[in-house]
Structure formats: C-alpha cells, structure tokens
Amino acid sequence: MSMFFDQTTIDVKAGNGGNGAVAFRREKYVPNGGPAGGDGGRGGDVIFVVDEGLQTLMDFRYNRHFKATPGENGMSKSMHGRGAQDLYVKVPQGTIVRDEETGALLGDLIENGQTLTVAKGGRGGRGNIHFASAKNSAPEISENGEPGDERRINLELRVLADVGLVGFPSVGKSTLLSIVSAAKPKIGAYHFTTLAPNLGMVSASNGANFVIADLPGLIEGASSGVGLGIQFLRHIERTRVLLHVVDMSGVEGRDPYEDYQAINQELASYDLRLLERPQIIVANKMDMPDASENLEQFKQNLAQEQTEEESGLPSIFPISGITKQGVDALVNATADLLESAPTFPIYEEETSGEDTVQYSYTTNEPDFTIERDPDATWVITGSNLEKQFEMTNFDHEESIRRFTRQLRKMGVDETLRKRGAKDGDLVRIKDFVFEFVE
User: Fold this and answer.
1) Any known ligand binding at 90?
2) Minimal CB count within 10 Å: which of 91, 241, 317, 330?
3) Domains, the chain
4) Is residue 172 annotated as involved in ligand binding?
5) What is the pLDDT of residue 110?
6) Burial of 111 (0-12, 13-18, 19+ CB in 10 A)
7) 312-333: pLDDT as tens digits
8) Record-annotated residues binding GTP (predicted)?
9) Using CA atoms, how far apart are residues 96 and 271, in angstroms rounded to an integer?
10) How far does Cα 364 stand from its chain's mean position?
11) If phi over 0 gives left and psi between -120 and 50 gives alpha, with beta otherwise, what is residue 382?
12) Residue 219 — pLDDT band, cuts 50, 70, 90?
C-alpha cells in the first residue's frame, strides 16, 4: 500500500557563478596588449513549479538533494562564460514551502504552472578587463563567481479540495465519496480505514463540478496529536465547505449528537477558523432500524443548543450510502453552498500574494564575527566576509592584496588589534590560514 507522503525536508543548492578570467591580448606590434579576461556566467536558480499531475510528495522521499549547475568560467579574448540553465523541480498543487532554519513561509503553490524561486544562482565573477585603471593598465586580478544560495526547505502538502468530509471513523465517508464521484477508496468496517485523503471529482445534476476529499476519520484528541488525526486536520484547511457525516444508526452504542459535538470540538481546538466554514450535516445510514428516531432526537438537541447561540441551524440531509437515497439532493445543495462560500487563504497574514519570492542576503547581521579557538587561532566568520573570500582568486598576488584591502575596509584588522591580536598570530577564514601582520 502506498503511504500518503505529505511532509518532507529537502536541500537545495543554486549554481555558483563562473570564475572571471585573467588574460591579455597578444597582438603583434602591441607590447603587452591590454587585459582580455572575460566574466564568468551566472549560476542556475532552483525553481519549484506546480505540476497538477502529482498527488503527493512521494518523489521527494528518496531524492532530497537538488543542485543547479554552475555558470561557465570566463575565457581569454574577452569572452564571457555561458550562464547555467535553471533547475526546475516539480511539486504537487497545494504545496506550502518554508525555510527550515527560519520557519519563514516562502510560498503557497496552488495554481498549475505557478513557479517559486527558492535559491538564487550566484553572479559570475568579473574578469580582469574590469580592473584596468590609469595606474594599472595590465591588472592580474579577477573575481571568482559568487556562491549560489544553499538552504534547507520544508515542504508540506495540503490537498486542494472544495469540500471536505469529516466525521468519526466508520461513519460512511468513504462509501459516500465512492457514490458521488468516480473515486475508488478502500472501504472497510474497521477504524482508520482511510490512511490518506482520497480525492474525487463530483458533477452535480445542476451542472456544477467540485472536488471532494474524504479526510481520514478524526477521533477525540486528534488536534493534540492522538491517532492519525493531526496529520490530516491540515488538509481540511483549504476546503470551503465541510460535510459532517454522522452515523444515525447508533449501532456501535454511540450517541450521534455526542459524536457531532466531539468532531466540532476537535476542529475548534485545531484552528477556530475551521468552524467558520459552512457545514452541512449528513445524517447517514438512514436505512438502519433506529435511525429515524435518532435523527429526531438529534434535531431536538441541535435546536436546543442553537437557541442558546442565536445563530442559524446547519442544514441536515438524511441519506443512505447503501440505498443511495437522498444523495442527489445532498450533492446539489453542496454545489449551491459552494457558490456563496468564501475562500479561506491559509496564510493571508504571511503571503504577499506574489508568484515568485526573491531572496536577498539578510542585511541586519554583522559583516563578521571573531572568535578564538583553543589553539589560539583567531577565527573570522560572517556570510558577507565569507562571500568576499570565496570570490577572491588566490592564484594572483593582486587579488590577494585586494582581499586584504577589503578586510581592512570592513574593520577586521582594527577589531583584531582591539581583541589583542599580536604580530605573527594565526588567523583563519574558512580553511585559509594566514599570519596577522601589525
């Protein structure tokens, strides 16, 4: 049996930019012709794209690393390297994307074909044609490409359905789904038959179409993590109308009205907004002996409670999954209710509603931090400084001099002095170790 796979964490790495080149024109009669090193190409982005053919996040179960290709290096004769192709990763409709480290919402992917850039490729490094000046007409200096973004990402799938079936296990939700749509859920008389949300397309006789999801049976305590419930409560969040299926036969010795209240309690304790959705009460198993009396009692209990709350009564549709009585009327009423039902964006306060989210390096962190290892080496870290380091080509003396000037400008030398660094002390940036010179 395939397990419904609806949450996973993956690693994405955009391509690094290509390195800039150091080269010179070698022309006859032109002594040491000017610089002619081209720029590196841009690294590829990692972009999610919605594919309506996917139903689960199963594809990410065994493949959790996605790496875009780097840009091409610059070449001589001022030729620039080619930019890399972006890497497109397909995700199902209804995927919510978050940054694992910060928990920030990056996107809620709903429309087929919608895209979201989750990691930006690095820009290409500049070749030595950019570093010529009046003082230095033949610079031996170039940049390495900028590193591409690297991040861990949480993916969570919330099924896209207009209507959700809720109710205790074994009240007949799967049977109802199989009657009203072409879906073929596994049906059994034991609790937790449904291990995954089953989706079905329903065509009402009044011409309307909608998607219905049979959400696995809730049990009391589901919102606090009991049973399978909490895993599936999140799938209800996208639905606009809830069909609350209640077993009116009472054959298992349960009280239909208590069941109804217990499920609503679960929905409320998971997220109060779930109770704002219009509900239709589906009184199922009306072909059973005591069902009619139980339904009368149910209506009385409901009416009593509602007078206290002063709000309209939810509609009740008596049906039988076995004889199919009342099912057509229920489907048409659901379609009518959908026309006026509001949509509930999951993260209205978080999403900006833009298709593509662009990322910038966080500006509020310091350029660098300095710590001291037990072996007395000074260790300098910081994303801004490390980026400069990675973009320095240490094969050329001039590039190294430029990097030391950048460090001085950032205030690294001064900070080291203040912290007590002496002439000859070792300083480490990533895996590069050099001596501190006063």
Assistant:
1) no
2) 317
3) 5-155 (2.70.210.12), 161-338 (3.40.50.300), 367-434 (3.30.300.350)
4) yes
5) 83
6) exposed
7) 667 888 888 777 888 888 888 8
8) 167-174, 192-196, 214-217, 284-287, 320-322
9) 18
10) 24
11) left
12) low
